[in-house]
Amino acid sequence: MDTVNAVKNRILALCDARGISINRLAFLCALPPSSIKNILYGKSRNPKLITIKMICDGLGITLGEFFSTAEFDALEQEIK
């Protein structure tokens, strides 16, 4: 798995755990729904850290909590 898919999976898992839609997440984060959908559907292959921070703020979690998963810990180095 690569980082882009790990970010996508984490966003979807957090929304699922909270029972919120992507549109509701966008509202909570003060982001356009298209920004989140671009990450989820692969149009944005390199989301900005500030965008991920805004998602975390909307969900009431820290960046550390967002990235603190076995999936992120298992990522291989992408620069070889």
Entry keywords:
single chain; 80 residues; mainly alpha; 0% strand
Structure in a nutshell:
The chain is an all-alpha fold and 80 residues long.
Structure, described:
The protein has 80 residues and is mainly α. The chain is built from six helices and no strands. The chain has helices at 3-18, 22-29, 33-40, 49-59, 63-67, 70-73. Helix 2 packs across helix 3 (33-40) and helix 2 packs across helix 4 (49-59). The longest helix has 16 residues, at 3-18. The protein is globular, with a radius of gyration of 12 Å. The mean pLDDT is 94.
**Which term fits the overall shape?**
globular
Question: Could you state the order of secondary-structure elements as H and E?
Answer: HHHHHH
What is the beta-strand fraction? under 5%
Span of the ends, CA to CA: 15 Å
What low-confidence regions span 5 or more consecutive residues with pLDDT below 50?
none
Question: How do the strands and helices of this protein lay out in sequence?
Answer:
Layout lengths: L2 H16 L3 H8 L3 H8 L8 H11 L3 H5 L2 H4 L7
